[in-house]
Amino acid sequence: MDSDGPDLARVDLGAPGLARVVDHLLGGAHSFAVDREAADVLESEVPGIRRAVHQTRSFQGRAVRYLLDQGVRQFLDLGAGLPGVGSVHEVAAASGRPARVVYVDIDPMAVAHARHMVRLVPNTAAVLSDLRSPALVFEHEEVRAVIDPDQPLGVLLTDVLPALPEPIGDVLDGYLDRMVAGSYLALAHPTSEGWPGAEGRTSETWAPVVLRTVAAVHALWDRVDLVPPGVVPVGDWRPDHPVEEVRQESTVPVLAGLGRVRPEA
Ligand SMILES: C[S@@+](CC[C@H](N)C(=O)[O-])C[C@H]1O[C@@H](n2cnc3c(N)ncnc32)[C@H](O)[C@@H]1O
Fold first, then answer.
1. 56 lines ligand 1 (CB under 6 A)
2. Residue to mutate, 131, 160, 211, 237, ligand 1, most ligand atoms under 8 Å from C-beta
């Protein structure tokens, strides 16, 4: 992994890519036939996944708008996938408050694609890196070029921690320790509890997925001060259209929340 970008020679173009599958579920145009077939399989294995993906992306947009209102102007989107439908730089631009944005992903194909998508967007980069190494992420040349570590930062972790087995506490600490007071952590995570009539379902195709308990997911925000309404079902987090969104809660239980980094004691 280097700043010249991903090694596409290692990419299997015949296999589906999770980032492109998500883009397809969101209604984006950045997928191949193999991804769309995989999305169909995923939906048959995990009914409700499409709505959950939409709700999670909507939550991310609302969180970004909230942070822009608080004066945050730089964002690190970890496990970003493709910066297509409702991506951070689009939300910021649409709100008239352009931001500095870095998209980080471990998938070389997704990052190559993302780099192409943001090549003309100022102060925006897509970087190949493993989010499990916060030090390497922050030291990355392109991250350093876009993100000022002395300014408040919005770190986004939407639907990516299920890709990481325990322990993840040290990973979160690695980011929180590098974020100045006034920074925020936005997180969305599906739970193993709360599924209608069944235990948590994971896809055979997209294993391994870690579905954490409600208590374990709540604990992810232990080190930050939660912005109201706290950690709630993803559609309930400051919905733009409260009645409609709450009534249509996904059958895939996802918890979401936004927390403010505390000043050092
Ligand atoms: C389900 S997608 C979520 C995409 C987006 N955050 C969203 O909410 O729609 C998970 C993404 O995380 C990426 N990912 C998985 N493990 C990662 C890691 N260790 N470091 C960086 N990205 C990772 C995958 O490649 C994939 O693009």
1. yes
2. 160
Q: Atom of ligand 1 at shortest distance to CA of 53?
A: 9
Buried b (16+ CB within 10 A) or exposed e, 46-77: bebbbbbbbbbbbbbbbbbbbbbeeebbbbbb
Backbone angles phi, psi at 256, to 5 degrees: -140, 155
Pairing of strands 74-78, 224-226: unpaired
Report the length, in residues, of the chain: 265
- pLDDT tens, position by position, 103-113: 999 999 899 98
CATH code of the domain occupying 8-261? 3.40.50.150
From atom 27 of ligand 1, which residue's Cα is the shortest distance away? 81
Closest CA to 202 of 54, 84, 52, 42: 42
Minimum-distance ligand 1 atom for the alpha carbon of 19? 27
Model confidence over 40-67: pLDDT tens digits?
988 888 888 999 999 999 999 999 999 9
Ligand 1 centroid from CA 105, angstroms: 6
Cα distance between residue 173 and residue 13, in whole Å: 35
Model pTM score? 0.92
